[in-house]
């Protein structure tokens, strides 16, 4: 991966983390009203979507999955723990499980795409 591509990836990752942190901690400032059908029970679908995106951005480029997995789980735990101390927010085990589900779906998606891409490359040889 070129230096420019790594910088772009790092920038996108930082923007994603900033977006997730802001809306996890200050949900009442969210500028759009998200319909219940998209949001799901509470905001579980949004948790899954956010951590799915984080995983899909984070994972490519790493040979080992341990580092990105631990980082994504740390972010999910940290956001839930931070919400304990906020007056309008509260930590919720269901939200944490939805976040971990988004991480798992992201890993499955990335590995499925990697597998298809590797098979395609092998068929070209």
The N- and C-terminal alpha carbons lie at a distance of 22 Å
Q: Number of DSSP strands?
A: 0
H and E order: HHHHH
- Any idea what the radius of gyration is? 16 Å
Low-confidence stretches: none
Query: How many independent structural domains?
Result: 1
How many separate helices? 5
The percentage helix is over 70%
How would you sum up the global shape? elongated
What's the average pLDDT? Answer: 82
Decide which structural class fits the backbone: mainly alpha
- Describe the main β-sheet briefly: none
Keywords, separated by commas or semicolons:
73% helix, mainly alpha, 125 residues
In short:
With 125 residues, this protein is an all-alpha fold.
Which helices and strands occur, and which strands form pairs?
Layout: H1 3-25, H2 36-39, H3 44-58, H4 66-82, H5 93-124
Helix pairs in contact: 1-3, 3-4, 3-5, 4-5
Structure notes:
With 125 residues, the chain is an all-alpha fold. It has one domain (3-124). The chain is built from five helices and no strands. The chain has helices at residues 3-25, 36-39, 44-58, 66-82, 93-124. The chain is elongated, with a radius of gyration of 16 Å. The relative contact order is 0.14.
